[in-house]
Amino acid sequence: MIGFDLVSKRYEGGHQALTDVSFHVDAGEMAFVTGHSGAGKSTLLKLLAMIERPTNGVVTLDGQKLNTVRPGDIPRIRRKLGMVFQDHRLLLDRTVFANVELPLIIGGVAPADRGRRVRAALEKVGLLSYEKQLPEALSTGEQQRVGIARAIVAKPAVLIADEPTGNLDPQLAMEIMTLFAEFQAVGTAVLVASHDLMLIKRMKKRVVVLDHGKLVADVPATEVV
Ligand SMILES: Nc1ncnc2c1ncn2[C@@H]1O[C@H](COP(=O)(O)OP(=O)(O)OP(=O)(O)O)[C@@H](O)[C@H]1O
What we know:
Elements: E1 2-10, E2 16-25, E3 30-34, H1 41-48, E4 56-61, E5 64-65, H2 74-78, E6 81-84, H3 96-106, H4 111-124, H5 140-152, E7 158-162, H6 170-185, E8 189-193, H7 197-203, E9 206-211, E10 214-219
Parallel strand pairs: 3-8, 3-9, 6-7, 7-8
Antiparallel strand pairs: 1-2, 1-4, 4-5, 9-10
């Protein structure tokens, strides 16, 4: 579902962010990407989201090689991908409902179907009763859950998250990671960048480790202790 084959990324100005990174994540599999600050975690996710392009190598999303995607096709392919960020990036002047509805509007889903799907997404993250609230009325953890509902409302094949628990206390962070694992259980491929090793160990999922842009370890879930 997600493929990196000998992927390298050099930013303009000469900084080498990734070097010959190869790994694959299957449908229904969840993996963490970890490593020190500047190791290349965000860059890896940006290549998958087509926010950046690789310098070398091939990135694949649901069987599609992203290198050859024409700019006009990017929105259609991005719909296969749900994205969650550390700073939830919600629209503060819109209700929780309207924030979660946005990907469905962009995706051309008929108005008659949108309400049911938004409520199903809010129910999955435990926020059904918050639909009429503005994001500011919610706690940080609840705002992050709205961000997750928005990411999964269009039923993406792949869910990616960049430091989704960076602003949360350990208990809330664990709840958010457990939520990601639930999407994995229903067949979504989930890739989460995090530097929180304690949390990663508790989750017992596959761990891909980057060090100065190189993949230095790929630990299967069964070997995470
Ligand atoms: N747009 C950019 N232009 C130039 N260099 C960049 C750019 N974005 C990232 N870099 C560099 O690429 C390297 C990898 O950065 P990246 O953000 O992918 O790391 P990271 O592991 O996500 O770090 P952090 O945990 O601090 O977010 C860093 O040295 C960074 O300075």
